[in-house]
Design a protein that fits this description.
Largest sheet: 5 strands, mixed
Low-confidence stretches: 1-13, 15-78
CATH superfamily of one domain: Dipeptide-binding Protein, Domain 3
CATH topology of one domain: Dipeptide-binding Protein, domain 3
Structural class: alpha+beta
Distance between the termini: 54 Å
């Protein structure tokens, strides 16, 4: 008989229970849980399956369960992990601006040597002034992070780009604030949005940033159909295109044929194609670009022979590929930028390095040019496991991207040794992971027919045991349910929609599939195709190399679907290849994070197919974007969604909210996407921060650009 030594280790689940974290699943249901507010739990009674939706659709709500009190973080023992939502303040009153400016020591040395203009001349007359969360910081040091390679560019965007959107949001992501643009005006009943730029602002190479850089983007990039084949829906209202006009060097007008009162909010996020030069320039978006640099690679500004020579010397196939590379914030160190840090060692190397921009417009209330930290160094992690192990070992200074909630016990056990703090930032989106169903799939007509069938999609959803997923991958800390956002968010259609078509019911799923005529099965119990009698197989394209265990979740769903006779084939590929397949309409199911779904008007991609990047039906999205000129005509229920979506951008607030809720009702009833578990810290909400990092918020708003709302330029090393 062998004898094992008594071990102190305990299971992950028991460890979490022991720390009082089991209540996190309840506490995280509210976006404001960290502030001590309470919210009733969502109903657990499954709805009776409604008949296929007609337009306008109405879902049959489940029977509500009487609300019970939810423990606050303090009551649950979570005060050290889920804090209050907080962040820095943007100062807009010029009378409160600093009168003198300071700079990092290495920049001061360059000024003294005559190699750099004085800091006041570099910043310009209208700096972006930030009151740090807690204190004025110190200059110096390196911020260490982990990334997974070239396809992980958003890692750097989130940390080091500012963001560089024309407008931005405050730390709560509820209020639009100035950013690259100094301020804005809405004129002519919402038809005209005027942007006032910052006088004296410069690109990182010292060249002026003016209205010409916005006009160049509009005329030479956005309007060039080689660079941007399909017009951006964000640049139109009700299908009617807008335009950009220069007023003077520091004033531009976005002019639309109808009211577009929501346009400032569109400019305040990087989650759409107008979302800043760093994140969107590669795709021809961004809203502005360095005209003085990019003109040398554009056929409207150089001769054909000269451009051909440049293309050949750089070994690209055409000028478009060359241009996009030259405008790639993460890959081209020569690119002039306006971000607080700029790439000096590109993202296609094992160490992606960003160094401070001498011409940064960000300053604190004491007049110190930001950022405080000298450089951001992202080190390649060969796998997500390695990134999580390095985080637990204290090798990262501030990291949330790619950290796995299932590793929470390990992170907590090692935080003293690693000299870091662990934070849990809860999201307001209903499903941390989605499987988008491609309703426009056409390569296999039989499969395409079923994916476009409402009751087939509903049956797939009813066949998923989300409670088991929650226990296995969320440590029981999430909330199983639909893609419906938190009930406290502005556009939530109501608590009853949290469970619509998302309560495990394999018997009902089998009845629905039988009712569709899929009654024949093979000797292993899998349903057969109606066209050739072969096994009906659905393929899910699963993204590798992210902080989501997409493939592992899919493997468990594969086991669930055995009980309803559906065979799931899992194809794991790199994010870049997956995106290419999505755009080519080649995916059947596609895994992706469900973040940002709490704002369906600004970030609709996780609610319904609105762009060619959507795995939910890119041909339908193309039809929508081109007003029916390209793509494939969608079914009536999706047409109604598109109609309401467009209308919402031009109507008063109350009507806008109503339309957004109606969009959610259709999307949830039609089951455009398969949900899993949400309202948790799973999606980028597990955060480790070195104890010596200053101005670290107790809690961050979790979005597709976190930690940017915390204004990373104000982070600093206390020692």
């Amino acid at each position: 008989m062998s004898h094992k030594k008594e071990q102190r280790t305990i299971s992950r689940r028991d460890f979490v229970r022991g720390m009082g974290l089991a209540a996190l699943g309840l506490a995280s249901q509210s976006l404001l849980a960290g502030c001590g507010q309470t919210t009733p739990p969502t109903p657990t009674v499954a709805p009776t399956a409604p008949q296929p939706t007609r337009v306008p659709p109405t879902a049959v709500p489940p029977t509500p369960v009487p609300p019970t009190p939810v423990p606050t973080p303090t009551e649950a023992g979570l005060s050290g992990l889920i804090g209050k939502l907080e962040g820095p303040e943007i100062i807009t009153d010029p009378t409160n601006f600093p009168k003198a400016f300071n700079e990092a020591p290495q920049l001061a040395q360059l000024v003294a040597a005559g190699k750099l203009p004085k800091v006041a001349d570099r910043i310009g007359s209208d700096p972006l002034v930030i009151k740090p969360l807690r204190e004025i910081g110190n200059y110096g040091g390196t911020w260490r992070r982990g990334f997974t390679g070239t396809s992980d560019k958003h890692n750097g965007y989130r940390a080091g780009s500012g963001l560089d959107t024309l407008l931005f949001r405050d730390y709560s992501c509820q209020t639009v604030v100035p950013n690259i643009a100094k301020d804005y005006e809405i004129q002519d009943d919402g038809r005209v949005i005027v942007l006032h730029l910052r006088r004296g602002m410069k690109w990182s190479d010292g060249q002026p940033f003016t209205a010409d850089d916005i006009v160049f983007w509009y005329e030479d990039m956005y309007s060039n159909r080689d660079l941007v084949p399909t017009p951006f829906v964000e640049m139109s209202i009700n299908g009617k295109a807008g335009k950009v006009e220069k007023v003077d060097d520091y004033t531009v007008r976005f002019v639309f044929p109808e009211s577009y009162a929501l346009f400032p909010e569109v400019l305040a996020t990087n989650q759409n194609v107008l979302g800043g030069h760093a994140a969107q320039g590669l795709s021809g978006g961004g809203g502005f670009a360095p005209a003085h640099y990019l003109k040398q690679f554009h056929p409207s500004h150089v001769s054909a022979d000269e451009l051909t020579k440049k293309v050949q010397e750089a070994k690209f196939d055409n000028w478009v590929a060359l241009f996009k590379f030259k405008n790639d914030w993460a890959l081209n160190p020569e690119l002039p930028v306006v971000t607080p840090w700029k790439t000096v060692s590109p993202a296609n190397t094992s160490t992606w390095t960003l160094e401070r921009n001498p011409y940064s417009i960000w300053v604190d209330t004491a007049g110190n040019q930001l950022p405080y930290i000298d450089e951001i160094v992202l080190t390649l992690g060969e796998s997500l496991e390695i990134i999580n192990l390095r985080a637990a070992a204290g090798e990262y200074d501030f990291q949330s991207r790619h950290l796995d909630l299932s590793k929470l016990p390990v992170l907590l056990e090692n935080q003293e040794k690693g000299e870091y703090r662990v934070h849990l930032d809860t999201g307001a989106f209903g499903s941390d992971m989605l499987m988008q169903i491609n309703q426009s799939y056409a390569e296999d007509p039989e499969i395409g027919k079923w994916l476009a069938t409402t009751d087939f999609r509903r049956a797939l959803s009813l066949g998923m045991d989300r409670d088991q997923l929650n226990e296995a991958f969320w440590l029981g800390l999430g909330t199983p349910g639909s893609n419906c956002p938190d009930v406290n968010t502005k556009y939530s259609p109501g608590a009853e929609y949290r469970q619509l078509w998302s309560t495990y019911d394999p018997n009902k799923a089998n009845q629905m599939l039988d009712g569709l005529g899929l009654t024949k099965k093979d000797d292993q119990g899998y349903r057969l195709r109606t066209d050739n009698g072969a096994r009906l197989q659905i393929i899910v394209t699963s993204i590798s190399g992210t902080y989501f265990p997409f493939t592992k979740v899919c493997e468990m769903v594969k086991e669930h679907w055995k009980k309803i006779g559906i065979y799931l084939d899992i194809d794991e590929v790199d994010r870049g290849l997956a995106g290419t397949r999505v755009a080519a309409n080649q995916t059947q199911l596609y895994t992706r994070p469900g973040d940002n779904a709490d704002d369906v008007l600004i970030n609709p991609e996780t609610t319904f197919p609105n762009s060619t990047r959507s795995g939910g039906g890119c041909l339908y999205a193309q039809w929508f974007q081109t007003n029916g000129q390209k793509g494939k005509e969608p079914p009536e229920h999706l047409k109604e969604v598109y109609r309401m979506f467009r209308l919402a951008f031009s109507v008063p607030e109350a009507e806008r909210v109503r339309l957004a809720k109606e969009i959610w009702k259709v999307a949830l009833d039609q089951v455009y996407y398969l949900s899993t578990v949400g309202l948790s810290s799973f999606s980028g909400g597990v955060r480790v921060v070195k104890k010596d990092i200053g101005n670290d918020p107790e809690r961050l708003f979790v979005a597709g650009f976190t930690p940017a709302p915390a204004r990373t330029v104000t982070f600093f090393w206390k020692k």
